[in-house]
Specification:
- The protein has 289 residues and is of the alpha/beta class.
- It is built from eleven helices and eleven strands.
- α8 links the parallel β4 and β5.
- The protein is elongated.
- The structure holds ligand BV8 and zinc ion (ZN).
- The site of zinc ion has 8 residues, from loops.
- Ligand BV8 binds next to α3, α4, β10 and α11.
Amino acid sequence: MADFLSQFTQLPSGEGPSSDMKAFREVFGAAKNIVVLSGAGMSAESGVPTFRGAGGYWRTYQAQQLATPESFKADPSLVWEFYSYRREVMHSKSPNPAHKAIAELEARLKPQGRSVTVITQNIDRLHHKAGSESVVELHGCLFRTRCTKCGDITDNNESPICPALKDKGAPDPNAMSADIPVSDLPSCSKCHGLLRPHVVWFGEPLEGAVLSAVDEALEQCDLCLLVGTSSVVYPAAGFAPRLAARGVSVAEFNLEPTPVTGSLKYHFQGKCGEILPEAVKRHPSEPEQ
Ligand code: BV8
Ligand code: ZN
């Protein structure tokens, strides 16, 4: 087993991944189809709270307590306050240097016949705002709604999303629930049914089309950048190990090791807004712009 794993590590002793940026840059310079797997840490330096750590609480709840169909059924007003708050927070947030470096990389490599595909767990749309074009939103989007009655899916950037949610959703632990009646919650323009955020909650399956897009991107992938994710939520957490098991180079950019770090080729410790732009800047083998 050790020799099987050691092929994924740089060090002959096989103890864990390499942090040799020079070696990574050579692999990067030769890569044809790069996949960026991103999590909440990609948006942390934009001021968007991550799920783990202090920022992961809204009032006295953790996201995974509210991001479930059961919670929405039990208290749609509370869950809408949570999502309305996260929507409103995003109006003052913008892409950080990590988002921008990935968007610039995609544009720079395209004329070289090389691809960059972002597969994100984030629902904040910051990759799109940074200019990335090839983006797969695994878990949906804060700014799309789905009707619980007729299934209609619509983009929605309204602020607030409905009058009853104006100035609601305060995150502090002792904020009172607004207890908004369902009739005053966001409703479908087509059938007046109750709308929900078009996001994937815990216990809900990812969309088939999304999973097919993931399979296709992973099939072609010859270099994966795993950025700002704790790699604990499945199926997303399984994508990088699936690539590593096939011998694809995976480089993790994170503040700390994660449960998948040991199976990866590279681990670069630090803030992705600082280390990622350096890692993906133009390689000498690339044509001058
Ligand atoms: C499914 C959208 C099957 C909503 C999200 C046991 C019981 C029940 C379920 C399960 C179970 N075991 C497994 C499951 C399945 C479950 C799961 O994996 N649970 C976990 C908790 C064990 N998964 C699901 O339910 C999925 N569906 O399996 O369906 C199925 C099939 C058929 C039929 C029915 C069902 C659906 C999961 C999707 C849930 N929705 N989001 C919303 O956002 O509100 S998940 C949400 O949490 C995010 O999208 C993301 O995926 C996850 C948070 O993870 P991260 O993004 O990694 O963020 P985190 O804060 O954790 O970590 C941040 C990282 O960044 C850290 O490592 C930190 O060090 C680093 N960092 C911070 N700052 C920086 C940085 N790095 C670099 N630079 C920085 N500056
Ligand atoms: Zn409807």
